[in-house]
Amino acid sequence: MDSDVIHEFGENKDWNESFYFNLYDRGNDILGFMRIGLVPNKKEKTAFCFFLMPDGSTIGTKSKSEMADNDLVSGGLRLEKTESEKKWTIKFEGELPRQLKDEASKVNVKFDLEFDALNGMFDYRNCVSGEKEIISQNVASEHFEQFGKVKGTIKIGDREYAVDALGERDHSWGVRDWSAPGRWVWITCQFNEGYAFNLTKLYTDKGEVDAGFIHQDGVTLPIVKVDMAHEFDAEGTPSELYLAMYDKDGDVYGVKAVVKRKVMLTMNEDEKRTPVIFETLAKFKLDDDVGFGVLEYLLRK
To answer: pTM to 2 decimals?
Structure first.
């Protein structure tokens, strides 16, 4: 079954089809992440596009547009499938806000990138079933992950970067109620083109759900259990994370993550306890291997 299609819409107002990509270029020390979500029962497309730059600046914004079609185009961002479950192009041209400490400005941004998969599409249903599947129904019940390499160019202002990066994409669909979980932690980490892991830990009032994979030596194994110890800074934002990941064969992996840069995105602003997402660049260490990727927290403020 081809997962890289637009699926039949459900009737819930929060039904959402989401396409997300991230990349980290070690040579240029640039983290990028972008997403388009189709919300048909609200006649909306949502998008975000961000870069966390080596000088500490954040470039990017969230946006909404009217959903007049199913094209993955919104807010200047365009996602195009070139080979199903394998290759995508990611394009953008426009002006984005830039924030460096207390200084706000705008900058012209243009990029043309190609994502090329390094493993097969991984279905979170390989990790979750029964009661835990029911618990996660309101947080995009259908969820696929895949890591890959990303190449192309990014032009920010007058400077152009040649990109040679690793990254992750996910494709999820179903009800996406940002208010449903009390918290979640989502991680993508790549050590090299043959070694990476991904995981999600979802915290709800009905229990916890763990899912993800570890890929090494050409094999992708489901992660079925994760223990976490969190550290936050004085402002209450994520700073360090300690993990014990258990794969389906019973092997355990100990990981330390240190946050290097971060940006906070506010979701569902009209709620009393607004959900916020911290999207961070993190450095991961597993035994003697060092990797980089995204450590994402959804928290309540």
So the answer is: 0.94
